[in-house]
Amino acid sequence: MNVARPGMVTSPHPLASEAGAAVLARGGTAIEAAVAVAACLSVVMPHFCGIGGDAVWLVADRQGRQRCFLGIGQAAETLPVYNAAIPLRGPASTVTSACAVDSWGHALSYSAAHWGGTQPFADLLAPAIALARDGYVPSHSQHFWFDFRRDEIPQWGSFVDHFSAVAGAPFTQPGLARSLSLLAEDGHRSFYDGRLGKLLAEGLAAAGSPLGATDLAATRTREETPASLDYRGLTLLAPPAPTQGLSTLAIMGILAHFDLAALSPTSPLRYHLLVEAVKQAFLDRPLIADPDWSEPAPWNFLDPQRLAAKAAAIEPGRALDWPHPYRHGDTVFFAATDEQGRCASVLQSTYFDWGSGMPVGDTGILWQNRGAAFSTVPGDRNEIAPGKRPFYTLNPGIALKAGNPHLLYGTQGADGQPQTLSVLLTGLIDHGMTPEEALGQPRFLLGKTFSDSRDSLKIEASLGKAAIEVLAALGHEVAPLPALSPIFGQAGAISLADAASPSGAHDPRGEGKAVRPRTNR
Predict the structure, then answer these.
(1) Which three-class secondary structure string do you get for 442-471?
(2) Cβ–Cβ contacts within 10 Å for residue 402, how many?
(3) Comparing C-alpha atoms, which of 96, 181, 85 is closest to residue 132?
(4) What is the pLDDT of residue 230?
(5) pTM of the full predicted structure?
(6) 125 Cβ contact list (under 8 Å, min separation 6)
(7) Of 191, 172, 443, 492, nearest in space to 332 by CA
(8) What is the C-alpha separation between 345 and 243, in angstroms, rounded?
(9) For residues 363 and 203, is the Cβ–Cβ distance under 8 A?
(10) Is residue 325 scored above 70 in pLDDT?
(11) DSSP notation for 316-353
(12) What are the residue boundaries of the structural domains of the chain, listed by start?
């Protein structure tokens, strides 16, 4: 008999979710399941993530341990002289190393030390290797983003040879299968100072990237204490600087001053307050940078008095004027919880969709363009420098209740991440929604985007014409978009309100799903 076990995995691709659930079914930890998911997503969602990118992790358990693993690559030691912004594509955009694979190894070491994890690394990579070698049917998302960039792709050199896919046909990645097999044989550090690292260094040099073998060897995951904020009796965790996790927490700290539960979920006033709280928090965001290189901000982002003042600055009857720099980026969110209630909440990314557009040699690895998030303005807190980490949009979340994991959540979308999380978290917490209900709510996206250069408030038409008209009357420059538009990204959530039977979902804007592990008994 096929019997469901405690635990759950959610991810934006069913094949990845199933791979993670299989790890849980054989007794693996949430971290081990997450590594299997991460590896599969590197294959089946090459437009959003890969082993040529980065990853940020939050982990928590019922023993009171909460840690953040910042798998963020650093800028090359030898950099060109910049007279303009860093290019968005091509070899010149590959100025930061890739730390995703190191974060997998770091997380597995933590799992072994604290959670009794025993799953071999090679076993966790096996499903991803098989998918890269034997192929899979590309998702609608993969086709959408290939078509979206169709006019640019001819400028990306060998990219088209690696990532062209025929609708309905299996899509194979033999080079990536070989690279993943090297990792399975040699261990995760092969990517940095082993056989695979040698191939990568040669490929990067041949392409004209500033990255070299010493940059790969120096790449390491940082383990940090998560930032935290209390909201309605829960403790919200987020990754610290240089990520925008502080912005997400600040938004929630501002919203704590309003009785959102008294408002209808589709009330225009609710959405007005969410948007205005985002604006107030984003005003401080330019001060977030690599703490190794920057003086501390002149204030505490999460100071209660500061958050109260920001809440008081919100006018219920008028929108704050808003031009603000936009940061682009795409990624994948996935999460896992095991039968012991241990949790991993993760974002993995190559920054823009399709990253730098540059496959490295014949490794099948598409390198990230995360270095484009740096500034080239002298004196800017986020100015590029050798060995420095850029401002980072990735911020997965975990909410604790009485010290135990209660909610896992996250989303893709760069600037849109804190905005989507404000909708998701207030739906889950203030309005008591299930994960599926919360993920189906109308979304908004403030300011310029890669598809719309106006400083407008993009909002899903499912909010309703009347509510959108009220927002316009309040002074928002509203730009309605179709319901469940892929422009708003894909989020996911797991609720542990019933720890023995978690509930979860992935975004209706994509094809992902939440999966419970099952065993034969």
Answers:
(1) CCEEECCECCECCCCEEEEHHHCHHHHHHH
(2) 8
(3) 181
(4) 98
(5) 0.95
(6) 36, 39, 180, 183, 184
(7) 492
(8) 15
(9) yes
(10) no
(11) TT-PPP---------EEEEEEE-TT--EEEEEEE-SST
(12) 2-81+98-223+332-373
Per-residue pLDDT of 139-195, as tens digits, reads 989 988 899 899 999 999 889 888 887 767 799 999 999 999 999 999 999 999 999
pLDDT at position 253 = 98
pLDDT digits (tens, 9 = 90+) for 256-275: 999 999 999 999 999 999 99
- Let me know the angle formed at the C-alpha of 437 by 433 and 441, rounded to the nearest 5 degrees: 105
User: Quick one: pLDDT at residue 449?
Assistant: 57
Q: Which two tokens stand for residue 292?
A: 């190794």
Tell me phi and psi for residue 50, to 5 degrees: 175, 175
Question: Residues of the chain with pLDDT > 70: what percent?
Answer: 96
Catalytic residue ranges: 331
Is the pLDDT score of 454 beyond 80?
Answer: no
- E strand or H helix that includes residue 410: strand 404-411
Largest alpha-carbon pair distance within the chain? 66
Give the list of residues 6+ apart from residue 469 with CB closer than 8 angstroms, or none. Answer: none
DSSP letter, residue 361: T
Q: Calculate the alpha carbon distances from 409 to 155, 229, 317, 334, 344 in Å.
A: 36, 15, 31, 8, 10
Residue type, position 444, single letter: F
d(CA 334, CA 17): 9
Q: What is the pLDDT of residues 96-149, one digit of tens each?
A: 999 999 999 999 999 999 999 999 999 999 999 999 999 999 998 998 889 989
Quote the tokens at residue 398.
Answer: 């975990």
Comparing CA positions, the residue from 26, 25, 8 lying closest to residue 17 is 8
Reported residue count of the chain is 521
Report in angstroms the alpha-carbon separations of 354 from 369, 395, 443, 513.
9, 20, 24, 23
Q: Are 68 and 226 in contact (CB under 8 A)?
A: yes
Q: How many other C-beta atoms can be found within 10 angstroms of the C-beta atom of residue 178?
A: 17
Q: Which of 399, 421, 395, 446 is nearest to 507 (CA)?
A: 421
Query: What is the pairing mode between strands 503-506 and 66-71?
Result: unpaired
Query: What's the token pair of residue 332?
Result: 């994948």
User: How many angstroms separate the CA atoms of 344 and 331, rounded?
Assistant: 16
